Amino acid sequence: MQWTAIVATALGAAIGVVSTLAADRARWRRELSERDRDALRTSYAQYVEALTQARDEITQTSRDPTLTAEERAENVRTVIGRHGVYARQHQLELTAPVKVVRLAINAANELAAYRDSVINGSTREDPACTEARRAYREARYRLMDAMRSTLERP
User: Which CATH number does the domain housing residue 67 bear?
Assistant: First the structure.
């Protein structure tokens, strides 16, 4: 057997092994990236859900004509904590990009301002409550846009 045939066979085997390892590494990185994106998507969804549930309760309370101002205040005083907004925010702080975390904090602050307007006696129709609700909505839209952009595939 000629030595060139042996070298060619060994070189072909080495190329095959290297290309298989490279393909496996690329697949592993793609799967890891997809798992990370899924975990981030889940974290985002849980945070937005907590915001939405808290906002819904604040809105329902601000609309209820049977409640006194004191009863409305008592109903919404702990709404953010009850729906886990801050707990979900802390999860985001561990995994999300800094821009998303800042926008999440801003959305929670605007939600708290909306809650505070109801605590201070505003109902849904009052201008202070309307302005606080709109500010929260805008903050949530900015947050969700940033979340979507981080989930896009490169």
Answer: 1.20.120
